[in-house]
Structure formats: C-alpha cells, structure tokens
Design brief:
about 375 residues; alpha+beta; Rossmann fold; 9 helices; disordered C terminus; binds adenosine-5'-diphosphate; binds magnesium ion; YheC/D; Glutathione synthase
Length: about 375
C-alpha cells in the first residue's frame, strides 16, 4: 500500500491557543478527507536533529491532541506574525513550502505599480514623507493614508476635499473614531504628520494613496474580496468573489469594523445593471490572474491570494491590497457553503499535488543550477 502524504501547517501557537483555530481545524479535516496525514505545528515544535515534529490535530468534540509526527513533505505557511523564531525557520531551508515568503504591503504595491502588465489597476501610491500629502491633494480629491504593513482597517485615514476644506476620517490603533474638518491642505499635511507619528507601528512606513470613490451605496463603503487559488492541477483559478459592505459612515469595509458580506453578481447587477455587471466581473478575474502571475514571478511559488478590489462609482476596478495569507470567512458569512468548502480544500489539494510530485527535490535542484 502506498504511504500517506505528510503535510504540515506552520502557524502561531501559545500553549493550545492557535491563531485562526476554526479555519485550521477545518483545514486539517479537509486534508484527512483527501487521504493525507496533516497536522499543525509552530516554531517551537520542530526537532531538527531527529527530523520529527510535535504536531497538533483537532480532537473530536473540541480541543487539540498532540503527538510526534514524521517530517512533512510539504509545508503550508500560515504563520501571520513576523516574530524572529518564525522568520528563522521560514528561511532555514528545512522545509519545502507550498507558498514562498512575501513582502510588506508598500513593497508589493510599489512593485505592482511599476509593472506594465498590472499597473493600470493600482491607484497612485507613494511612501509617506513630508510634502507628499499636499502634492497628492493637488492631483486627487480623495486620499487614503494607511500603514504599509496591514492592520485590518486600523490606523487608516481618509482625506476628502469638501469645497475648499477637507474632511478627515479614520480609526486609530484602538479603533477609536476620528472625524474632523480642516481649512486647507497645509492643515491636512500637519494633521497627517501627527497621525503617522502617533500611529506609527514599529516596522512600518505609511502609504499615501489615491482614494477611490467606493460609495456604491450612499454613506457606505463597499469593496470586493476575491480569492484566487491554485486548483488541483496547480493552475490559478478564481475560487470566489464577494462584496464587503462597511458600516454606515465608516471609511473602510473591513469586517472587523462590523461590515457584512453579500453576493457579488447580485450586488453588481443591482448597482450597475445586467450589461455592465459581467464586464466588471471579467475585469476582476483578469486582474486577479495577472496579479497572481506577476507576483509569482517575483516571489517564487505561491498558493493563493486574497485581493481587496475597489469598484468605484463609475464601475472601474482597482486593486486595493493583496493578501498572501487570506481569510475565507466572507464566503461563510455570505452563506455560500460550496465556495467556502472549496476555498479550504484547495490549499490541501495543491500541497498534496506538490508532495506527490516530490516538489522539494525539484526545487532544490533548480536552485543549485541557478
Ligand atoms: N485607496 C483607497 N481608496 C478607497 N478605499 C480604500 C483605499 N485604501 C483602503 N481603502 C479601504 O480601507 C480598507 C482597508 O484597507 P487595506 O489596504 O485593505 O488595509 P488592511 O490591511 O487594513 O486590510 C479597504 O478594504 C477599503 O475599504
Ligand atoms: Mg485589506
């Protein structure tokens, strides 16, 4: 009988506390269903000398069970904190990862803005420095100032021209709401200077970005969450697409901020009509494929991306953000079970396919040749 493929999932844990326990529980179970040996592990669980790992699996009825497992043939990296122990392990060459390490938001945005294949979807973006805000206000009536490393909607500031004045709106680190009006661009520049100093996150630049008018519903922000993944043949495919709607009066649509998820086609038909909706959908899919391909060329093998896409009031699609370790809860929230289940199966299918092809050996050979 052929042996089971062994897939490890690298994640943060403290005691029996995992980040995203619900998703990871489902991921392991999806792997079992597909006939693989799957377990979770964190940086502290690796015994390099004996080449074995103290892995974790879900117990029936809740909780986790831990035991020694054989070395994984392929590892899915789901670690979302950049702690040194993780970084060391990630770059140690000990594992064959299904997904390559990725860069921070501002680097990725810069890279995409400079690539002709995809630049048309990227709003004008600069790393924050003195004078940038005023310069950008001369070019755009709406700006977003946001941390260059992602924060789930925190520390993001929206600046909108209102007549000769400017409205500033955002949430700080503690989710505290700010909403003020200032007289002129100089005042905006000064306010933003204080904001980036106060909000500064240890390793982060801030970005000054052309703002998109996403008020597809009055007084609300709506944007699109698209999940593109490698399918069981290793080919990029859009798994699903949803619309996220922010709470009334909020500058962002993030679900943590209390937004909700709704069906993409239904929403687009209602807002832009039967004729335009399929065009917008095609545009989002084309964007996703081009971006996945471009990023994979730059960063090495990837497995999935979550794209935050803004469809502005004129129906034009823009890239807001690329998430290399995306959530998939939007599909569940929207009640689309089938897409949700597929979104969980696909990473495992891809890892399995790599394991069967002995991808580790191939990757190493390729690196030695280069
Ligand atoms: N340039 C922009 N124009 C309009 N809305 C934006 C822009 N940038 C961000 N947003 C809003 O803020 C949200 C969060 O921004 P994002 O860049 O995705 O950061 P995070 O890492 O916090 O998710 C987006 O989902 C969108 O609703
Ligand atoms: Mg985002």
């Amino acid at each position: 009988m052929r042996q089971k493929q062994v897939i490890g999932i690298l994640t943060w844990r403290e005691g029996q506390r995992f980040s995203e326990p619900d998703y990871l529980r489902r991921l392991v179970k999806a792997g079992w269903k597909l006939g693989a040996e799957v377990y979770l592990f964190s940086h502290q669980d690796v015994n390099t000398k004996e080449r074995k790992i103290k892995g974790f699996t879900p117990k029936a009825g809740g909780g986790w069970e831990s035991k020694w497992f054989p070395w994984p043939e392929v590892v899915i990296d789901r670690y979302r904190r950049r702690v040194p122990q993780y970084m060391r392990l990630r770059h140690s060459g000990l594992f064959d990862f299904a997904n390559s390490p990725f860069s921070k938001k501002w680097r990725v945005t810069k890279l995409l803005a400079e690539d002709q294949r995809v630049s048309r979807w990227v709003p004008e973006t600069h790393v924050y420095k003195k004078g940038k805000v005023m310069a950008m206000l001369r070019r755009h009536p709406l700006l977003y100032i946001k941390p260059g490393n992602g924060t789930g909607g925190r520390s993001i500031l929206k600046v909108a021209a209102v007549g000769k004045q400017y409205q500033l709106q955002g949430r700080d680190k503690q989710y505290g709401k700010h909403n003020i009006r200032v007289e002129n661009a100089v005042a905006v520049e000064n306010w933003v200077k204080r904001w980036v100093t106060k909000q500064r996150i240890s390793d982060g630049n801030f970005l000054v970005q052309q703002g998109l008018d996403l008020a597809l519903i009055p007084n609300r922000v709506a944007d699109v969450r698209l999940l593109i993944q490698k399918n069981e043949e290793g080919v990029w495919d859009v798994t699903g697409c949803a619309v996220r709607m922010g709470t009334s009066g909020s500058a962002t649509s993030n679900l943590h901020g209390g937004g909700k998820a709704i069906s993409f086609p239904q929403f687009m038909v209602k807002r832009f009509g039967e004729e335009s909706a399929p065009r917008i959908q095609r545009e989002c899919h084309t964007m996703a494929h081009q971006i996945a391909q471009t990023l994979e060329e730059k960063f090495g093998r990837m497995m999935e991306f979550g794209l935050d896409i803004g469809v502005d009031v004129s129906g034009r699609a823009w890239l807001i953000e690329v998430n290399p370790k995306p959530g998939r809860e939007v599909f569940r929230q929207m009640g689309d079970r089938k897409t949700y289940e597929l979104a969980i199966e696909r990473p495992i299918q891809f890892a399995l396919q790599l394991a069967k092809a002995g991808s580790g050996k191939q990757e190493k050979q390729r690196k030695e040749v280069v």
